[in-house]
Design brief:
There is one protein chain. This protein has one domain: 3-Layer(aba) Sandwich (Rossmann fold), CATH 3.40.50. Helices cover 45% and strands 17% of the residues. It contains 11 helices and 8 strands.
């Protein structure tokens, strides 16, 4: 079911709810350069047991792409708006890369809305100020075509690119159809975000999924992220940055086990 979602600054966000409205809710948060289809394998596998909410972050997919720099607060408030539009008070969050940083922000700033947290291929500080600013300017000058090859090499491991060339080519083509303005806006959010000093405030049950072949957020960064969150567990997949696409079954199994464990603990506390 498509949701009518408008952020508090008037930007329209494209969101869809899958599954039984009465089931526990999973909110998925996508990576920079990706739209809600990133989560197709997980939604297909989980919508029978969960209400799966997916949406295009501002600047991506079918959501509007206002010009200018975005902030992590802005992206986090967008996610809260999606939850409000769906009538959801509390959800299990699953975020990858940029979506993982948004998930951290939500768990820090709105802990009452977060039932559990799955942080995949992400870090509390992704990249550097210089790298994101360089990429932001390049995209504004040359568009997404100018970084498409680099993006695909960072999204997928060499082994996966060799094994699934048609899939990767179609993904690259979809990437280039995105908004350069929106991508640049999210570059600014990642440029400015460092949640490391606030990780200790996260109290939601947390699973950190790292990719052994991930060059964008290497395993050392996944370990540091898990180490900064009390009680966080780690799962390593032999995959690149978009581990949920390279190893969808293993990713989904880890996510589902974590969500169900969090639900069980919540019931026992009542």
């Amino acid at each position: 079911m498509k949701l009518q979602v408008e952020a508090d600054d008037g930007v329209r966000l494209a969101a869809v709810a899958h599954g039984d409205p009465r089931a526990p809710v999973l909110l998925f948060l996508n990576s920079i350069g990706c739209d809600q289809t990133l989560w197709d394998p997980q939604v297909e596998a989980l919508e029978g047991k969960h209400r799966c909410l997916v949406f295009d972050a501002r600047g991506h997919g079918q959501s509007e792409a206002p010009p200018g720099d975005y902030t992590m607060e802005r992206l986090g408030r967008d996610a809260l708006t999606v939850l409000d539009a769906a009538g959801v008070a509390r959800a299990h969050l699953c975020g990858l890369s940029l979506g993982g940083v948004v998930g951290q922000w939500l768990a820090i700033q709105s802990p009452e809305r977060v039932a559990s947290l799955t942080l995949a291929n992400t870090a509390s500080r992704i990249g550097s100020v210089e790298s994101w600013e360089t990429r932001r300017l390049r995209v504004l000058e040359a568009g997404l075509d100018g970084i498409a090859d680099m993006a695909v090499e960072r999204f997928f491991s060499a082994a996966f690119r060799s094994r699934r060339p048609q899939f990767v080519a179609e993904f690259r083509e979809r990437f280039t159809r995105g908004s350069g303005v929106g991508y640049a806006g999210c570059c600014a959010a990642l440029r400015d975000a460092d949640l490391t000093p606030e990780l200790a405030r996260i109290t939601a049950p947390t699973l950190v999924i790292g990719g052994a072949l991930d060059v964008s957020t290497p395993l050392a960064e996944a370990a540091a992220l898990a180490g900064g969150i009390a009680g966080a567990r780690r799962k390593v997949l032999t995959a690149g940055h978009l581990s949920n696409l390279e190893l969808p079954e293993a990713f989904t199994a880890a996510l589902q086990a974590h969500v169900e464990a969090a639900q069980t603990r919540s019931l026992h506390r009542r």
